[in-house]
Amino acid sequence: MRTKITLKHIAKELGVSISTVSKALKNSEEIGRETKEKVQAFAKLYNYRPNNVAISLKNKRTKNIGVIIPDIVHYFFTTVFRGIEQYANKQGYNVIVCVSDESFDKEVINMEMLANGSVDGFIMSLSAETQKKNDFNHLKEITDQGIPLVLFDRVTNEIECDKVLINDKEAALFAVNKFIENGRKKIALITTEDYFSVSKAREAGYREALSASNIQVDESLIMKLPFMEVDKDALKAFFTNNRLDAVLCVNEIFAIHGMNLVQKKGVKVPEDIAFIGFTDGILSKYANPGLTSIAQHGEKMGEVAAKMLIEKIEDEKEDEEVTYRTEIIETTLIERGSTIN
Amino acid sequence: MRTKITLKHIAKELGVSISTVSKALKNSEEIGRETKEKVQAFAKLYNYRPNNVAISLKNKRTKNIGVIIPDIVHYFFTTVFRGIEQYANKQGYNVIVCVSDESFDKEVINMEMLANGSVDGFIMSLSAETQKKNDFNHLKEITDQGIPLVLFDRVTNEIECDKVLINDKEAALFAVNKFIENGRKKIALITTEDYFSVSKAREAGYREALSASNIQVDESLIMKLPFMEVDKDALKAFFTNNRLDAVLCVNEIFAIHGMNLVQKKGVKVPEDIAFIGFTDGILSKYANPGLTSIAQHGEKMGEVAAKMLIEKIEDEKEDEEVTYRTEIIETTLIERGSTIN
DNA sequence: AAAAGCTACGCAAACGGTTTCGTGTTAATA
DNA sequence: TATTAACACGAAACCGTTTGCGTAGCTTTT
Predict the structure, then answer these.
(1) Are residues A150 and A108 located together in one domain of the fold?
(2) Do B25 and B63 form a contact (C-beta atoms < 8 A)?
(3) For A21 and C11, how far is CA from C1' in angstroms?
(4) Least crowded by CB within 10 Å, which of A47, A126, B189, B317?
């Protein structure tokens, strides 16, 4: 078992000092040609690589970024992560992922764990519980220490930092307008409890679209499902109690459930009822009929978030006060069989 | 902007030495009661946390584990990652994820990047390209250096290390037997090129099941699709050219594609043709009809892999020679509408 | 031949901790 | 009163690098 070789080993073996070895490997002008060659040859032979941890300590830079997301087994977050990882890697950064599991405590613990020097900055999306509690002290701690933070998708106004969002409201508005253009009138919204920043925005878009077309918003057509658990009976009741033309859902799962439900009753999609969901994930693509959905371009979001973060990390001007940006990623409506034939 | 406080700061502020502070915070017997209280109070007040990087350097332990997977936007890998992350976190480890993107070069680069002290061990699943090239020198490097490595799912016999697998062959055999029990005879297999360890094992199970029931294996019923790109036309041709009873697919996507294709032609699932896929993912659950599939219990796999890795990492007996295990995670057949009504 | 200038290298501090060992002070013992 | 033990703390080494600065030894200049 060859153990990792260090500068010290090389120095001892070659009878020179550690600093000479270090400089020789960096091709420093200070070191003579022969010595450099000797050292470099030896280093290559024994496959010397500098120890990342030591370098991190020296530079006070880990070249790691921390990503804290509520869930990883979830198409949207996965794609965002993909974007982050790709961009970060290109810039020589590694990514440490922690899953908060929608739990406030886990979110806090994970942040604290990573904040003690393990990462140079954070990219995160708030857990459901955090949004419900409205407690952001852990984020405040981080930013107060000058550690860069980028929030995406599930954000809060309480914290000043860079943010990446989609145009939730406009996307919902656009989708509802699409329904209206096609002559649909009884348009429902299936959403989550509204402590979610995104759900709130989407609902606003829904309402605005209806109002703009002089359609009275019927509160009974807005269904709020508890987060992450689809109450099938409630959903069934919702569909039997209401004669609907169209349904906008804040995620894929709600939409697929809805489609399966009505189709089982012989209602035709899209002839009798149309569906649009948020998140253009794998389910939308393979559903039958395909689900028209609002693509959030998670990979792009991740890339932008990573870029913003790394810029902040590598920006040296710690003296001047920092400014924060909010980037909006435009959504795209991907039309499939659930709205058109 | 409060900057991170160090032992040195506390020491200077309190007029004691750094070592005294360090010991006081560890509640060492060596330090007097008063001093300890003073130091601890001060540390708490200023929210002192030891710098992880410094500790890593001292201990030669990072408490990080590296996970290298071919793809993250992929249900199975995501669930495995979930299992790894959960277990690792419970044990105080963080997880650095690198995506090889099915590329040999990226796999190598990622490994080398992390191997220089950034992680204490690796969990990985081989990229497609690596399996095709059959080049495992980068893994050899790692194990030669005594860095623990656990391979899962896509493994190789060329490397001696811990492994976590599913009983691919038996699962395929079981599934095919299921078809046969139901009176199906013309049973097809849709798989990938066979440089994949898993595909090979599944094909073996398929063949064995048929042979055991004295059904001649019809080579034309075995379709090998190039990896990751479903050739729709080839698939369509396959289904029109063969009158099939049942199809076993090595993944969800192939199965869903198949189902959608035959259903579009008016063929009834499961009456005329039954489908079983590997990976009990989100698609299987929401397909119409639901896809019967072989659950690989990714989360369990991840947990087991993480456990094996951390045991190796924390096992001090570096003098004795190490032994390697291969753990098999049993699969479960989840029956849905694609095989039964 | 003395002064100056290079060349090529080593020393030591620094990053932020942990830990072993030594030591000054006081209190207990002979 | 001299000896010793206990106590409470500090100095220093160490983990692996980087880097500013000092300097020995040689060459060049005048």
Answers:
(1) yes
(2) no
(3) 14
(4) B317
One domain for residues A78 and A143: yes
**What is the band of B47 on the pLDDT scale with cuts at 50, 70, 90?**
very high
User: Would residue B339 count as lying in a domain?
Assistant: no
Are the beta carbons of A286 and B256 separated by less than 8 Å? yes
Residue A228 has pLDDT above 90, yes or no: no
> What residues contact A277, with CB distance under 8 A and at least 6 apart?
A248, A249, A250, A251, A252, A254, A255, A256, A284, A291, A292, A293, A294
Q: Is the CB of B6 under 7 A from strand C?
A: yes
Shared-domain flag, residues A227 and A289: yes
pLDDT value of position B218: 96
Suggest the residue from A52, A102, A301 to mutate for an interface test with chain B (most B CBs closer than 10 A): A52
Instruction: State the smallest CA–CA distance between residue B211 and chain A in angstroms.
Output: 34
Asked whether residue A101 falls in the same domain as residue A42, the answer is: no
Q: Å from A58 to nearest chain B CA?
A: 10
Q: How confident is the model at residue A307 (pLDDT cuts 50, 70, 90)?
A: very high
Query: Helix B298-314 crosses helix B75-90 at what angle (to 10 degrees)?
Result: 40
Domain extent at residue B95 = 62-165+298-330
Identify the CATH number of the domain in which residue A148 sits. Answer: 3.40.50.2300
CB of A81 within 8 Å of a chain B CB? The answer is: yes
* pTM > 0.90: yes or no: yes
> Is residue B2 domain-resident?
no
B211 touches chain A (CB under 8 A): no
Which positions of chain C lie under 7 Å from any protein Cβ?
7-12, 14-21
Amino acid identity at B107 = E
- Same domain assignment for residues B121 and B152: yes
- Rounded to a whole number of angstroms, the distance between the first and last alpha carbons of chain A is 65
Q: Tell me the residue length of chain A.
A: 341
Query: B115-139: per-residue pLDDT in tens?
Result: 999 999 999 999 999 999 999 999 9
Beta-strand relationship, A332-334 and A292-295: antiparallel
> Tokens 């190789």 belong to which residue?
B156
- Say yes or no: B68 contacts chain A, CB-CB below 8 A: no
Strand D: list positions under 7 Å from protein Cβ: 7-12, 14-21
E strands, chain A, are: 64-69, 94-99, 122-124, 149-152, 162-166, 187-192, 222-225, 246-249, 274-278, 292-295, 326-329, 332-334
Instruction: State the nearest Cα–Cα gap between A314 and chain B, in angstroms.
Output: 17
Residue A24 belongs to a domain:
yes
> Residues B251, B316: one domain?
no
Dump pLDDT digits (tens) for A243-252. 899 999 999 9
- Residue A18 is assigned to a structural domain of this protein: yes
B1–A146 CB contact, under 8 Å = yes
Query: The tokens 């909010």 sit on which residue?
Result: A326
